[in-house]
Amino acid sequence: MTEFFCRLGALIKKEFLSILRDPKSRIIIIAPPLIQLALFANILTMETKNAVVLAVDRSQTLESREFIAGIGASSWFGGVKAAADEQQARQALAKEKAQAALFIPQDFARRLKKGENAEVLLLLDGRTPSAASGIEGYISEIAAAFDRKTAQKIGTTGANIDIAVRVRYNPNAVYQWYLVISLIVILALVISLMLTSLSVARERELGTFEQLIVSPCTAFELLVGKTVPPLIIALILQAVMTTAAVFCFDIPFTGSPGLFFFASFVAMLSLVGVGLFISSVCRNQQQAVLGAFSFIMPAVLLSGFVSPVADMPVALQYLTYANPLRFFIDIGNALFLKDVGIKDIADELLPLAGIAVFTLYFAARTFKRNLE
Amino acid sequence: MEKTPFIDIREIRKSFDGGKNMAVDCLSLAIYKGQTVGLIGADGAGKSTLLRLLAGLLLPDGGSIFIDGKETKAGRKPPVTIGYMPQKFGLYEDLTVRENLEFYAALKHVDAEFDNMLDFAGLSPFQNRSAGKLSGGMKQKLGLICALLGNPELLLLDEPSVGVDPVSRRELLKMVKESTKGQTTVIWSTAYMDEAHGFDVAAVVDRGRTVFVGRPTDLAPDSRGFEEKIIELAGGWQKKESAVAKKFVMPDNSCDYPVEALHLVKNYGSFCAVKDNNLKIRKGEIYGLLGPNGAGKSTSFKMMCGLARPTSGTARIMGIDIVKNASAARAHLGYMAQKFSLYPNLSVRQNLDFFAGAYGLGGHRAMLAVGRMIEIFGFRPCLNDNAADLPLGYKQRLSLACAVMHNPPVLFLDEPTSGVDVITRREFWNHITALAQKGVTVLITTHFMDEAEYCDRISLFFRGRTIAAGTPAELCRQTATDSLESAFAAAILAQEEQPA
Amino acid sequence: MKTTTAFIKKEFLQIIRDPSSLLIAFVLPLVLLFIYTYGINLDFAHVRLGIKNDDRGPQTADLIDALGQNAYMQTAFYGSEKQMYHDLARGKIQGALTLPADFSRNLAAGKNAALLLVADGANYTQVAHTQNYVTRIANGWLSANRRQQTAAPTVEIVPRYLYNPNNDGRRAVVPSSLAVTMTLIGILLTALVISREWERGTMEALLAAGLRPMQFIIGKYVPYFAVGMLSLFFSIAVMVLVFRLPFAGSWGVLFVISALFLYASLGLGLIISSLLRDQMLASMAALIVGFLPALMMSGVVFPIISMPPFFRRLAWLLPPTHYVRFVKSEFMSGTVWETTLVSGAFLFALGTLFAAVVYKKTARRLDD
Predict the structure, then answer these.
(1) Which terminus of chain C faces fewer neighbouring Cβ atoms within 10 Å, N or C?
(2) With the C-alpha atoms ordered C258, C263, C265, C266, is the resulting torsion angle positive or negative?
(3) Per-residue model confidence (pLDDT) at position A372
(4) Nearest CA to B455 among B446, B465, B468, B464?
C-alpha cells in the first residue's frame, strides 16, 4: 500500500514538474486564460450597442424631429445622423458606415394629427441579422414611448398592458454575468484539454512511456498520475477565475461553494478524460493537438453557450450528450446564480460522470494495450 | 606527403551557451585528398561540432578552415561538394525509401540512377516502405546513399554505425569504400575501435583538441591494443572496484532461474517476428542477445520485460509470470532503454527522484537511494541541469543509475552502450560484471562484439529464431572461427544458405 | 527551382501521409458547416413558459391561448407560485408569467393592467426571446380587443432587411465559418511543421544539403496554401450546392481575398512554428492567437460594433475580423469595393510582414 502511494506520488510530482518547471510554459499555461477572461468578459456582448442610425426626414416637422430625438437620446445607439436621400443611406449601409436607416414619410405629422397611424420604414443590414433584430426591437420601443406621449397629448388614455419583466438570478439582465460564467467553463475546457491531450503523446515521442510501462506502476496508477496534475492545475485556475468573477465582475455567488467545487471536480474529470482519451489514441503530438482542436471547436459551438441546445435538431441534441461543456455550462450558471441543491443538478452531473468514466476507462485500456 | 592538404583546419574555436561551453578549442588538423579519417573521442570531445563546422552548419568563433586551398566563408558556397550524414539520419519517416532518396537528389541538383543506388544499398526490395519502418541498419544505409548523392569530394559521416549490427556495419564500410574509390576524402566519426583501426588516419580528439593524428597501425598493430592506446590518450582508465556493485544490496532470493522465456511467439499479422523462443538464465549470469537488426531479438527482449504482449508463450521474472502478473514481475526489474529515455525537461535530481518513486521507494529509502546514486556517479555538479542538456555519456550513467537504484535482482539492458565512447563503456562494463558477481541477473542486447565477450552466455538471433547459443568460446568452436564477430557472420551465412 | 519543387512535393507527401491533417482540412470544415447550419441559431429560441392565472375572467382565456399557440412557446400551468418558481430554478421552464386577479377588471375599466414575467437569468440566451414573445403576444391581443375602443394613433415601424429579406441568421453565420476553418488550416496545421523538422533532425540534413531559406519558406507556404484553398473550394461547394446558400458576389473576388486571408494566417502559423521549437508551447500559442480570436473577436458570433471603441479598433487588427466582414458581404450583398479593397490591402500587407518575419527567423545555421 505504501508502495502504491510512493509510485503515485512520484508520477504526480513528475507530471507537475514537466508542466510547470519551465518558466516559459508556466507563463503560457497560467496567463492566457486569465487575460482572455478579462478581455472577453469586458468586450463581448450579444446585445447591439453603438449602432449608428441614419435618418431621412421628409416630414421635417416638430413631430418627426421629436421622434428622431428619441433615438438620439437613447443609450443603445452610437448616434443618429441625417441623410439626404435613400440612395445615400443605402450606400452608407452597404459600407457599414451605419447599421440602420429610418425613413420618415412626408405625411408623418399630418397623419398623426388626423388620428391615423403613420408608417415609418426602417432599413436594416441583413448581413448582421442579430444586430438587425436588436435595432428593430429598440426602435419599436422608442416608437411605443412616442405613442404614449401622443396619447397623452390627445388625451385618449386607453388602457395598456404593463409587462413587468423580472430577470430572476440576474436582476439587471447583465449579459456579462452569463458570459463570464460560460467563459470560465470554456477556458477550463481549453486548459485541461491542452494539458492532457499532449501528455501521453509527448512521452511516447520521448521514449519515456516505455520506461513507465516497464516500471511496476499499474495502468491504474499511470492513469491517476496522468489525471491528477492537470485536474489540480485546472481546478486552481478555475478557482482563481471564479474569485475574479465575484470580486472583479461583481457577480454574486449564491450557490453552495462546496457543491460548486464538487460539481467542477466531476466536470473537470470528464474534460481531463476527454484529453487523455485523445492523447492515448494519437501517435504523435501533432495529431494530439489537431485532435484536441477538432474536439474544442464543436464542443464550444454545441454547448449552448452561443445558442440553446433545445433549439438544435434532435440528432444534434443527442450528440451534445458527449459534450461535457454542455452540462458544465448549465451547472456553472445554476450553481453560481441560483441556490440549487445537488438533486437539481443531478441531470447534468450524471452525464458528466458518465463521460468521465467512459473516457478514463478507455484511456486506461489503451495504456494497458500499449504494453504491447 | 609534400602536397598541400585537402582540408586544412587552423586553430579553429567554437563555443556554445555564450562561451561557457567550449566545444572546439584551437583545433588544428590537416587531411589529404583521398584519405579516410576516423574521428575518435569521448562524448562531448567536439567530434560532432567539428563535422558541423566543416559542413558549414556552424560558424567558427575563430580560426579558419581551408578546403582545397580555399578558405570557407560564411554565406558562400563551400569550395567542394560535400556529402554530410548527421547523427539523427535526417530521414523523413513518413516518406518512403525512394521518396527520401529522390528528395535529397533534387535538393542537391543531382540526377542519379536511383535503381542502381538502391540496389547498391540492398534497399531495392524495400523502396516503397516508409523510412520510419526500416531497421536501424537499413536507415543508416539509406542515410549513407543520400549523403553519397552527387559523388561528393568530401564525405562527412557522424557516427554512421551507431546501433547497427556487425554485418550491416561491414556492408556500410564496404559501400563507402566502393563508392568513393579512393577519390573522396572521408571523415568518419565512430565509437567502434575496430572500425577506426582500419582507416587510413585516426584523429583522436579530446576536450576540443586533437591529441593524436596518424596511422592507426602506428599506435598499435591490432584493434585491441589500439583501443588501449586510445583510452590512454583520452586520459586513461583505471579498473577499480565498482561503487555501484559495492553499495548494491542484493535482495534475498532463492530463484535459480530469475529470467525464463517459455515458448515465446510474436506474430505481426502474418509476419512471424519471434518463433518459439526459449531461454533460462541462471542467477548472476550475464546473458547477451545478439543478431542483425530486425532479427527478433528486440521483440524477444521486449516481451520478456513486459513491453510487448506475446502472441503465445510467456516469460517469468523471478518466477513470476510477466503476462499474468505484470506489476509484481516488473518490481524485480531494472530497465535501461536504448535511447536512455529520461525526462528531458526535468533535472538530474528530479529524474532520480521520479524513478525512485516509480519503483516504489518512498521517503527515507528514496532519499538514501538517490543520495547513493549521486555519490557513486558523481552527479553533484550537474544535479540541477536538465537531462536534455547532459552529454551522452552522462545520460547513459543517469539511465543506469535510474535502473539500479531500487536494487533489482534482474537487469534488462537494451543496447546500453550505443553511441557511447570507449571509456564510458569500460566503466559501464565494470559495473555490470561486478553486479553480476553479486548475483544480479543481466539480460543485454548489444552490437559491440567485444562487449559480447563479457557475456557468460549468448543467444544469436536470426529471422526470429535462436540459431546458436552458448558461451562465447563455444560459439567460436561451433563455427570454427577465432573471433565472435566471425562466428556471428559464419552462423548467419550458414542460415542464409538454407531457404528461409 | 527544382529544389523548391522537390521540397514542395515532400511537404505534400507528408500532408497526405498524415490523416490528421486531412481531417482538419476536409472533415472538420464539413462538421463545422453542419454545426453552423443546424446547431447555431440566433434568430429564435424555444421557450417553456409557466403561467399562473389568478384572473378568472373569460377574456384572459384568449390571451393564454395566444401564448400557447406561438410556434416557439410551450405553456405549462401552475396553481402555486412556489411550485412555478421552483421549476424555474430547476430549469424546467424558462419564464414564469403571472396574471394578477385584477387584470381584466383593470382593462375593462380603461386602466392599465399589469403582467409579471419572471425570466431565468441563468439561461441567458433565452431571456430576450421570452420577453419578446410575451410582449408581442400581449400587445397583439390588446389591440385586437381594443378595436372597438377609440385609440390614439401609433407609429408603425416597418422593418426591411437589406440583402437578407427574412433576416435569416444562418445566411450570415454559415459563410463566416470559412474564417474559422481557414484559420484552423492556416495556423494549426503549420504551427508544428518547423519544430518537427528540428526535433527529428531533418533540419540539419536540409541545411547541409544547401537548402536556402527562401526555398525553405516557399516549400512551407505553397503546400499548406494549396491545401487551404482546396479546403475552401470544398467548403464553398458544399455551402452553395448542398446547403443552397445564395451567393451574390463575384467568385473571382472571393477567391482573391480568401487567398490573401490564408496568406496572412499561414504567416502567423509559421511565425509561431519558427519561434517556438517546443511542440507543446507552439500548440498552446496557436490556440491563443489563432482559435480564440477567430471565434470570439472576429464578429462571427459577437457583433464587433458592440465592443468598446478601443477594442473595436483592436479587433480590426485581426485578420479574421476583416475576412468575416468581407465574406458575409460577398455572399449576401455582392462586392462592396470600398471595404473589400481596404481589407484586401490590409491582409496583403500583414501577410507580407509575417512572411518577412518568417524569413528573418528561418535558421541558416544550427546555432541560429
Answers:
(1) N
(2) positive
(3) 45
(4) B446
Whether residue C277 is found in the same domain as residue C180:
yes
Query: Which residue is associated with the grid cell 416638430?
Result: A62
- Give the residue from chain A lying closest to B323, CA to CA: A371
Write the pLDDT tens digit of every residue in A275-318: 999 988 888 888 888 888 889 888 988 888 888 888 888 888 88
**Closest to A290 (Cβ–Cβ): which among C24, C39, C46?**
C24
Give the domain range for residue A136.
Answer: 51-154
Residue A70 sits in the same domain as residue A37: no
- Cα separation, C365 vs A268, whole angstroms: 44
Residue C319's nearest CA partner among C292, C288, C351, C287 is C351
Same domain, C172 and C307: yes
Kindly state the greatest CA–CA separation across chain A: 93
C-alpha cell at C277: 521549437
- Nearest-angstrom CA–CA distance, A261 and A264: 5
pLDDT in tens, A162-198: 777 888 788 777 888 888 999 999 888 888 888 888 8
CATH T-level topology, domain B7-233: Rossmann fold (3.40.50)
Which C-chain residues 319-358 have CB contacts (< 8 A) with chain A?
A: 325, 328-329, 332-333, 336, 338-339
For residues B281-286, average pLDDT: 92
- A352: pLDDT strictly greater than 90: yes
Please indicate whether, in this complex, the C-beta atoms of A216 and B358 are within 8 angstroms of each other: yes
- A211/A76 same-domain check: no
- Reduced to 3 states (helix: H, G, I; strand: E, B; else coil), residue B128 is coil
Q: Same domain, yes or no, for A80 and A227?
A: no
Does residue A33 sit at the C interface (CB-CB below 8 Å)? no
Q: What are the pLDDT digits (tens) for A54-107?
A: 999 998 999 899 999 999 898 889 889 999 888 999 999 888 889 999 999 999
* C258/C218 same-domain check: yes
Angle at CA A338, nearest 5°, toward A332 and A339? Answer: 105
In A, minimum Cα distance to B388 occurs at: A206
- Categorize the per-residue pLDDT at C148 as very low, low, confident or very high, splitting at 50, 70 and 90: very low
From chain C, the residues in CB contact with A45 under 8 A are 302-303, 306-307
The H or E element containing residue A125 is: strand A118-125
Q: Does C131 touch chain A (CB under 8 A)?
A: yes
Q: At A121, is the pLDDT very low, low, confident or very high (cuts 50, 70, 90)?
A: very high
- Which of A154, A183, A199 represents a domain boundary (last residue)? A154
Return the C-alpha cell found at C208.
Answer: 547541409
**One domain for residues A195 and A110:** no
Radius of gyration of chain A (CA): 28
Could you tell me if A135 and A263 lie in one domain? no
When CB atoms are compared, the residue of B307, B344, B362 closest to A214 is B307
Q: Does A198 touch chain C (CB under 8 A)?
A: yes
Cα separation, C264 vs C358, in Å, equals: 12
- Please count the structural domains in chain A: 2
Q: Which of A108, A128, A154 is the last residue of a domain?
A: A154
pTM > 0.90: yes or no: no
Are residues C51 and C23 part of one domain? Answer: no
Q: Which pLDDT tens digit goes with each residue over B28-46?
A: 889 988 889 999 887 778 8
Domain that holds residue C98: 47-146
User: How close C211 comes to chain B (CA, Å)?
Assistant: 7
Q: Which of A156, A170, A336 sits opposite C151 (nearest CB)?
A: A156
Q: Given this chain, do its domains B7-233 and B243-332+408-497 carry the same CATH topology?
A: yes
CB contact under 8 A, A166 and C159: no
Domain B243-332+408-497: give its CATH code. 3.40.50.300
Domain count, chain C: 2
**Neighbours of A (≥3 Cβ pairs closer than 8 A)?**
B, C
In a domain, C82, yes or no: yes
Quick check: C47 and C95 in contact, CB under 8 A?
Answer: yes
Domain extent listing, chain B: 7-233, 243-332+408-497
Cβ-Cβ contacts under 8 Å, A164 against chain C: 114-117
| Check: complex ipTM more than 0.90 | no
Do C204 and C316 belong together in one domain?
A: yes
